[in-house]
Amino acid sequence: MTNRTVNPESLSKPSGYAHGILAGNTVYLGGQTALDKSMNIVSGGIVEQFRQAFSNVLTTLTEAGGQPQDLVSVTIYLTDVDDYMANGREIGQIWREMAGSEYPAMAGIGVTRLWQKEALIEIQGIAVIGNR
Asked: Three-state SS for 111?
């Protein structure tokens, strides 16, 4: 089995990492912050950063041949857990708009800081393509 690197052209060009790795029918989705194509963290707080970071994850998954329903595990790293929880209803609505009403196994982890100082969230995941 050969692993395939997945780096969508629509995302920022990675340096020293891959956006994703396809190993067999499993996609390992590297951590995504709310970076836009210009390598800037989007403004607007946790809700807009969630939207951008999750969009980046799904872009990589789609490039690998998967769909949101293929997600089996998602880990969300947060610099402010209380802020995320206070906006949970709106974040949940964004999830449903982008990925549907099925949820994978998930974890939320509070951290003191992410790679980009202005990043409030980082999302990584694992998907199994064709596991429907």
From this structure: coil
